[in-house]
Design goal:
Shape: elongated
Number of strands: 16
Oligomer: single chain
Radius of gyration: 44 Å
Structural class: alpha+beta
Number of helices: 5
Largest sheet: 10 strands, mixed
Helix content: 10-25%
Distance between the termini: 170 Å
Order of helices and strands: HHHEEHEEEEEEEEEEEEEEH
């Protein structure tokens, strides 16, 4: 007779034997794995409040950088601050303009006989063939570009090429004006051995050096500030060509720059010949002679140098030539 066998019941409980044999609950399939929850850091990054805080921090950072740069620029010399103007660029030449209202001009030659025609045009003074005789008036306008104040300590005329040469001859133009020239603050004799800018004397006093000497002065320029001054240059002994050398201080540094006539050309000035008859021709307006038919003639006249000198000797204001 068959024995009664004890029937073992299957359970999911882990026993030592089942662990050794690898028997146990079946692992869940990948698709059955529960979804992981979103990490807390990602939840904060997706928050609108986080974006708002980030924008505010960016604005504060940019503002702080601007304030810091401005502070450094104020304290340090310009040449030590990156991305800023160097001392060589601290001054801008806004304008150099001829403001001579009346006087004499020399024209080297006139092979085409066009001087008389040119004089009827308003822009004849800008023609480079006309050279100031005796004196010249130039208005120079400068502007400060640096964040710090620029202090101009000296302006010195420097001759171009060689010392002044013999006075120019050729033709002479006499231009008169009914206007009155304002007081000239600065003057310089460019044909002197050591030309220096001087302040024009007042009440009969002699002119004194402007930038040097016991009463030395200077010109200051703040950022975007402009300063204009007129230089009255004179020459009696020769024909001179020059530019101005400007020395200045800014941000603890010293620098120099050069100022020339329009187009960067040198300034030009010649003394007058001792005898007017030595000029080939002399051109003058009706203001320099006496015309019976009109008290204010606007016509230009032409004479040889000898004829002009003869008439000037006869009378201080000779009659206007006929024809």
């Amino acid at each position: 007779m068959p024995r009664n066998r004890r029937v073992a019941r299957r359970t999911d409980a882990l026993t030592r034997a089942s662990v050794r044999r690898g028997v146990g609950p079946r692992p869940a399939r990948p698709e059955e794995a529960p979804a992981e929850e979103t990490p807390g850091r990602m939840r904060h990054l997706r928050s609108p409040a986080t974006w708002l805080v980030g924008i505010l921090l960016a604005v504060v950072t940019v503002t702080f950088q601007d304030v810091l740069a401005a502070s450094v620029k104020t304290i340090l010399p310009l040449d030590r601050v990156p991305d800023r103007l160097s001392p060589q660029d601290a001054i801008d030449v806004v304008e150099v303009r001829d403001v001579k209202e009346h006087g004499y001009y020399a024209v080297r030659d006139d092979p085409d006989g066009k001087i008389l025609t040119q004089l009827t045009q308003s822009a004849w003074r800008q023609d480079p063939s006309f050279v100031d005789v005796g004196d010249a008036y130039w208005m120079i306008t400068l502007q400060g570009r640096a964040a710090q104040q620029v202090r101009i300590t000296d302006i010195v005329p420097e001759l171009v090429g060689s010392p002044c040469k013999a006075n120019l001859g050729g033709n002479l133009v006499q231009a008169l004006s009914q206007g009155v020239m304002d007081v000239i603050p600065l003057q310089v004799a460019v044909d002197s051995p050591q030309p220096r800018l001087k302040a024009s004397g007042k009440d009969g006093k002699a002119a004194e050096p402007f930038f040097t000497g016991p009463g030395a002065k200077h010109i200051t320029l703040n950022q975007n500030e402009t300063e204009a001054f007129i230089v009255h240059a004179t020459s009696e002994k020769g024909y001179c060509r020059w530019r101005y050398r400007v020395r200045y201080e800014v941000g603890g540094s010293t620098a120099e720059m050069t100022i020339g006539a329009p187009g960067g050309e040198p300034f030009e000035l010649t003394g007058e010949l001792s005898d007017t008859s030595d000029y080939s021709h002399v051109y003058f307006s009706g203001l320099a002679c006496r015309k019976a038919s009109s008290p204010m003639p606007d016509k230009w006249y032409e004479q040889t140098g000898a004829e002009y000198a003869r008439d000037q000797r006869r009378s201080g204001t000779p009659p206007c030539p006929k024809g």
